[in-house]
Amino acid sequence: MRFIADLHIHSRYSLATSSQLTPEMLDLWGRKKGIAVVGTGDAIHPKWFDELKEKLIPAQNGLFQLKKNLIHNEAAKYGNPVYFMLCSEISCIYKKNDRVRKVHNLVYAPSFSSMARLQKALSKIGNIASDGRPILGLDSRDLLEMVLSADSEAVLIPAHIWTPWFSVLGSRSGFDSIEECYSDLSDHIFAIETGLSSDPAMNRQCKILNRYALVSNSDAHSPENLGREANLFDTELSYSSIMAALKSKDKSFIGTVEYFPEEGKYHLDGHRKCDICWEPQQTKKYKGICPVCGKKVTVGVLNRVAELSENFTQGEISQKQIWHSVTPLKNILSEILQVGVNSKKVSGYYENLLHKCGSEFNILLDIPLDELRKTDKLVADGIERLRSGKVKIKAGYDGVFGSIKVFG
Ligand SMILES: [Zn+2]
Ligand SMILES: [Zn+2]
Ligand SMILES: [Zn+2]
To answer: Do 350 and 227 share a structural domain?
Structure first.
């Protein structure tokens, strides 16, 4: 069965997230988007863990579903109920080889009992209740060991691996390879999350990454942002099949749905406050020093990928993973209507389209253009341009999101 999964989001217990992040709303928005499996996010956080345990029922496949009596009264208007996968992001801050490292890791488990074991172990390391994404003084390698001993089926995936400040390969506080970070346990890493600022084409230049499945997730901080990046599978709907697909090099993991990498907020180099945005060549020319404030610029993902690609030229053969570059449907509607993306007008237009054409992903990826054109010619033109990559792009840098214009 072909389906879409978004396996990294946050709950309302994480900092700077929407109060709308409840299991009920995640089920509703998963349906609107056309996502079959949504990561719960924050499953280590005691309050969210308890809420999930109370509101979800096991679906007998390592995944969970919202209890029937809790389903939102509008949910029936949209597609199938969502399956949840228990997961959490952990922020590890520690010293290794004389440098401070800050690495975000995603952890997954097939049952509440195994997540509870991990929760108990982590509660001895630091405070797991202050933030939905706990910040712990814990070596990523040791976290991986704890994950594996909580459940033999539990999995760790390094999060948004290129983000300058908080990732395994980030330019500011990461490492130069996956092995350097996870040491003797590196073989247990089989997938990596590439983040919003890079796409598979960029990642595949970096041959040290060829042996990993490249996953993409939304890292959503509100229900509406679900699926801004996601994964495409063609396998059974179960925890073990999803993990097996990522481990295998076959077609059960089809690939990803991606932002254009320029849309991410760390694509190019620069300083937001100093209004400096540079391509990697300019950064090289200025030796990485901002001419306005005299400090080092934030080196973005494009530059960092190139740097690590030069270091390692040996590698295995690439996998044949495909990807679709997209932008959220509401961005296109906002361009058509010439009003803000969060306006009531755009919301109304969006709901109306879903009602006529199915889920957002169906509209972005699957619906034949002829069929869409019968419903709405302008939207069909926009989707046609999007699918063929005919878009105008302004790249993001130093925390500033990039932008995509479909009509220009
Ligand atoms: Zn993160
Ligand atoms: Zn996150
Ligand atoms: Zn500056």
So the answer is: no
Q: Model's pTM, two decimal places?
A: 0.94
C-alpha of residue 403 to centroid of ligand 3, in Å: 22
Residue 107 and residue 239 in one domain: yes
pLDDT at 205: 83
**How far away, in angstroms, is 356 Cα from ligand 2 center?**
33
Q: Is 97 inside any structural domain?
A: yes
Asked whether the predicted pLDDT for residue 317 surpasses 50, the reply is: no
Report the separation in Å between the CA atom of 370 and the middle of ligand 1, taken as the mean of its atom positions.
40
The residue type of 18 is: S
pLDDT tens profile 275-303: 999 999 999 999 999 999 999 999 999 99
* Residue 404 included in any domain: no
pLDDT score of 393: 93
Q: Identify the nearest ligand to the CA of 290 by its number.
A: 3
In this structure, are 346 and 211 located in the same domain?
no
- Of all ligands present, the nearest one to the C-alpha of 273 is 3
The three-point CA angle 228-335-160 to 5° equals 20
Ligand with the closest atom to the CA of 278: 3
